[in-house]
């Protein structure tokens, strides 16, 4: 771990105010097909409420199509809810202004499933890490250069990768770069949408461990999205189980695993073998 972690730690915030709060969110997509009951409509999110408190990791778990990514998109403002409210540090940003959008884009970072598509194939790793800091005019050029070197160290990569293009790195290394970039603006929160699903099983464990270390050392708040309940258990303080656009169960990781209340949660717990690497203890 590097000495000067402090400059990467999440900014101090009021511990009693959620970083992100979703209140009774509905998202209805207009489509060409739809269902028998709702022709030409998909009710992707159906009355969802959620609070991400400072320093905590919330795991969102559910099968493909249950609305996990749409929930993430509502949080970061990529998807406008059909109804309901989105709060950022206590401020209603449901209909966010361009200025609010820019601010929130800076303080909530996203790590996507596939680092190959999230990174620019033609840009060196150095330039990709510099880019968000250039856009948001962070410090002087010399300070940004120094920060790039520290960021790459923070995610456990040698400085030699800075000159590489994404295609020259392994999937796991690329995801580390994506995480370094997500940390570059010292975010309040990270939204990780299936960040390990595209990786080999052994690499998955390494990335999960890296995220666990970072959240502990930097005091990050995190929303961790996955269809694998064991992976979610490993990293989350609290878990929300989603089914058909609704939260069917919420609780601490311990509560959800030891005393699941909802039938769907029980089904998930008893379903397919974990995608988690066996080296990660239960
Ligand atoms: N832009 C869109 N237009 C129409 N329907 C959409 C759109 N985006 C998502 N949906 C639908 O909304 C529902 C929720 O999708 P979403 O991608 O949020 O689920 P998910 O749980 O993230 O699934 P996955 O794990 O496969 O990404 C699905 O039925 C999906 O087909």
UniProtKB/TrEMBL annotation:
- Signal sequence bounds: none
Which branch of life, at top level?
Bacteria
Q: Which residues form the ABC transporter domain?
A: 20-269
Example of a GO biological process term: transmembrane transport
Q: Which residues form a coiled coil?
A: none
GO MF assignments: ATP binding; ATP hydrolysis activity
Keywords assigned by UniProt, alphabetized = ATP-binding, Nucleotide-binding, Transport
Give the UniProt family note: Belongs to the ABC transporter superfamily.
PANTHER family on file: D,D-DIPEPTIDE TRANSPORT ATP-BINDING PROTEIN DDPF-RELATED, TRANSPORT ATP-BINDING PROTEIN
The protein's name in its UniProt record? ABC transporter ATP-binding protein
Species name for this entry? Slackia equolifaciens
């Amino acid at each position: 771990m590097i000495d000067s972690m402090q400059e990467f730690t999440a900014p101090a915030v009021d511990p009693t105010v959620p970083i992100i709060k979703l209140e009774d969110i509905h998202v209805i997509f207009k489509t060409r097909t739809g269902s028998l009951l709702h022709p030409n409509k998909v009710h992707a999110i159906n009355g969802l409420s959620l609070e991400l408190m400072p320093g905590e990791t919330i795991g969102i778990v559910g099968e493909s199509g249950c609305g996990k990514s749409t929930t993430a998109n509502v949080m970061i403002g990529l998807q406008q809810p059909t109804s309901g409210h989105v709060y950022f540090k206590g401020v209603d940003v449901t209909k966010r202004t361009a200025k609010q959008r820019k601010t929130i884009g800076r303080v909530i970072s996203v790590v996507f499933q596939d680092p190959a598509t999230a990174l620019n194939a033609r840009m060196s790793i150095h330039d990709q890490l510099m880019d968000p800091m250039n856009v948001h005019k962070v410090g002087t050029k010399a300070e940004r250069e120094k920060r790039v070197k520290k960021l790459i160290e923070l995610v456990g990569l040698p400085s030699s990768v800075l000159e590489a293009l994404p295609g020259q790195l392994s999937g796991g290394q690329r995801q580390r770069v994506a995480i370094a970039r997500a940390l570059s603006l010292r975010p309040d929160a990270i939204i990780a949408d299936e960040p390990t699903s595209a990786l080999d099983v052994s690499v998955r464990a390494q990335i999960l461990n890296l995220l666990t270390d970072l959240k502990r050392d930097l005091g990050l708040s995190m929303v961790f999205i996955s269809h694998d309940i064991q992976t979610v258990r490993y990293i989350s303080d609290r878990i929300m189980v989603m089914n058909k656009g609704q939260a069917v169960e919420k609780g601490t990781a311990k509560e959800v695993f030891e005393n699941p209340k909802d039938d769907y949660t029980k089904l998930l717990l008893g379903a397919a073998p974990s995608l988690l690497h066996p080296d990660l203890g239960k």
